[in-house]
């Protein structure tokens, strides 16, 4: 058996502190006030479609837009205790992004297990 790669170790470490959201729990999370953030690149959103109810924030400016102390924050980023659920395509980069938000003090930030693809599969099955 080979040792995990450095990125696999970093991903596991990031996920240790996340209360990750299962796709079947997403609607309840949103009903309780969670804010859905789609960090997928424009090309993926154009190809795969939008995530209803999500706010699109480019990954390269995510921290500046969601940090309530940043002069470049979005109007919704008013408090550090907001629950942001980050969504990428398959749930990998979103885990790293949510962990970074937690490091900024946004302790309730997390991500969607399986990302947009898991959401799309569940939506198609319903």
From TrEMBL:
It holds the Pfam family Rhodanese. It comes from the Bacteria. It comes from Nocardioides pocheonensis. Residues 30-124 form the Rhodanese domain. InterPro entries: Rhodanese-like_dom, Rhodanese-like_dom_sf. PROSITE patterns: RHODANESE_3. This is Rhodanese-like domain-containing protein. SMART domains: RHOD.
């Amino acid at each position: 058996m080979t040792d995990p790669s450095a990125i696999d170790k970093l991903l596991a470490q990031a996920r240790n502190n996340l209360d990750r959201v299962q796709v079947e729990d997403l609607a309840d999370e949103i009903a309780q006030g969670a804010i859905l953030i789609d960090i997928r690149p424009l090309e993926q959103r154009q190809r795969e479609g939008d995530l209803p109810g999500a706010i699109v924030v480019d990954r390269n400016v995510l921290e500046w837009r969601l940090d309530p102390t940043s002069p470049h924050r979005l109007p919704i980023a008013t408090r550090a205790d907001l629950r942001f659920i980050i969504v990428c395509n398959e749930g990998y980069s979103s885990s790293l992004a949510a962990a970074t938000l937690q490091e900024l003090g946004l302790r309730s930030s997390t991500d969607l297990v399986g990302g947009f693809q898991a959401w799309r599969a569940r939506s198609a099955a319903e």
